[in-house]
């Protein structure tokens, strides 16, 4: 079912979240972002930024057309490399393409001037005990600049070419003093972060305010909750269609067609039969039984896990901000399967408030899904036996029989007294 039906909307949701998050600033240290579904991962400070288009040389063929890539001037160098790699290797599985840490970002100016940009080098700004990660704005990279991704160079090469680096930066007054110092010979080599030795703390867009010595000015720049809640709602609205598409696919027999596993119909009929035998007419009891068997048992272990961790299914990379947003969607999925009333108060978490108006609709989808299954033709024991035999044949080489029997034995032993 995941392969035939639900895989596509799940992948589209992941892509939509990733794309929306990367439209705004993302802090490389804290993982907080301007656009987020999670309040815990929302940048509350005002961050000024501009969108740049960089023309990237194709690393596989320098004679091929350049690839235009949109980045932000506040992006760290590693963030910029990730965006360039996403564009240049679009459609290539994540495991089969180069890693950002294995590549250098080269800013090309004319035929000879080539500057290696790094998150940390001798131009990195240090104020008091805070060291700021270099960004594209730090190097004053301009819109339309020509860049290239090249394999990381050895230190000897870096030292031999450091003169070009220093000379190219000399026209920038803000960088002149550092670039012309004796340490300029190390300008291309990454600096060792002295956090443990000197207590220097790294920061990118916002300083980590867990430290007691943060400035009052930073505290005063915090937005009030109503403002960033509005931003959460705006992001949620942008992603709404993709969440709806996934949930509708999961909670609909129409999308499944013949892909609906016979086991679900067989199990639901069994539960209805047990309710009839015990003269249980309360629909909430039947709903709860089915929810405990499928959505809140199997789906929580499978679907919620897959929604939170699409990298288990797809060959992709999941960032911390994407993980936080997917966790909000997964929690909404669980809330949609519950029969309890969705009560909200002033202390309710923001993710509950975000989908407060949607959850009743999602719950109706779950109820409709149960009704549609009940209307389907019953599955005979013979059909069920044949189905299980066929599934065993299809997956004969996927599982170890003795290992499966061992797991079943431990399960039965644990619960045999209940």
From TrEMBL:
It comes from the Eukaryota. GO terms for molecular function: semaphorin receptor activity. One of its GO terms (biological process) is regulation of cell migration. Residues 1-418 form the Plexin cytoplasmic RasGAP domain. InterPro entries: Plexin, Plexin_cytoplasmic_RasGAP_dom, Plexin_RBD, Rho_GTPase_activation_prot. Coiled coil: none annotated. Residues 37-149 form the Plexin cytoplasmic RhoGTPase-binding domain. GO terms for cellular component: plasma membrane; semaphorin receptor complex. This is Plexin A3.
